[in-house]
Amino acid sequence: MESVKVALRVRPLVKSEIDSGCRSCIERLPNEPQVSIGKNNLSYTFNYVFDENEGQGKVYNLAVKNLIENLFKGYNLTILAYGQTGSGKTYTMGTNYNGEGELGVIPRAVYDIFDIIESRKEDTTFGVTVSFLELYNESLYDLLTDKPREQSIVDMREMNNGICIPGLTELQVQNADNALAILKEGSSGRVVGATAMNAASSRSHAVFTINIKIMNKTNPKDVIASKFHLVDLAGSERSKKTGATGDRFKEGININKGLMVLGNVISQLCDGQHSFINYRDSKLTRLLQDSLGGNSVTLMIACVSPADYNQEESVSTLRYADRAKKIKNKPVVNQD
Ligand code: ADP
Q: Whole-model pTM?
């Protein structure tokens, strides 16, 4: 089993880009999950490429649906959306779920999980809890409580409990609608700051976690536990372009540190040469420590804007995503 997969999603040009005369600088190449960017035709190959014509259902059905079953075999699963602010991370993940429009990854995954549970209820007992937190400026905040408190991360793996956050709200859910109501409630409390890039840019990592416990009815000692982290990462743009100063500038530095450490960890996991992985260098990677590598499955969805105005940031996202995968880039196939 390949433990880290990378999907690229290129969103359509949005109205503001069209109005300001932007053109698309990213081209999907035929027959391979490969794109080229810019005039000098730099090309990148991923496990999946979704272009602007491919909707939420296709992204989910091809890249995510077949991973869900792993949770029922005891593997942890992590899906991360990476990209600059405005590139489509929240849209793709469905973190801002409100029951309208085309559903993103989180609600589709929640429905599939409960469909599987329903189909196995005869011989299996399930316990499902969800938590929802935000990592902002290297601090963790619980999104499911009225009084946001900073949380700490404790490593309980020696006691077989994995990475824990004592005091973090974990709500028991009986069905998909329960879980989605909690997602909706939690996302309304996210820290959102305005930068020159996007009036409502997300400056924090949002982590929605589904914990599943599976007990065999005929053999109650036979218990499987797994964790599913769905992560809408903070914008990857460099602070120079956002025009951020003061607190926002500090945020930019912290956000980029987390993303940089995450990129290092994933590429260390991918090349398989490292006996020591630097999880401890950021809160984000400490939090995900038992769910990246080892007995877990990871999908990174790299999101990019196709606009030429954003070419530099898109190249940086493609490079970041490229480091996170094992497969080598294929040379551009000559189409003449
Ligand atoms: P981010 O979370 O990366 O900051 P958003 O998910 O908020 O970006 O997307 C920015 C805008 O682009 C939103 O208005 C969103 O609805 C739109 N958008 C993003 N991806 C797509 C897509 N694949 N198809 C249509 N609209 C999209």
A: 0.91
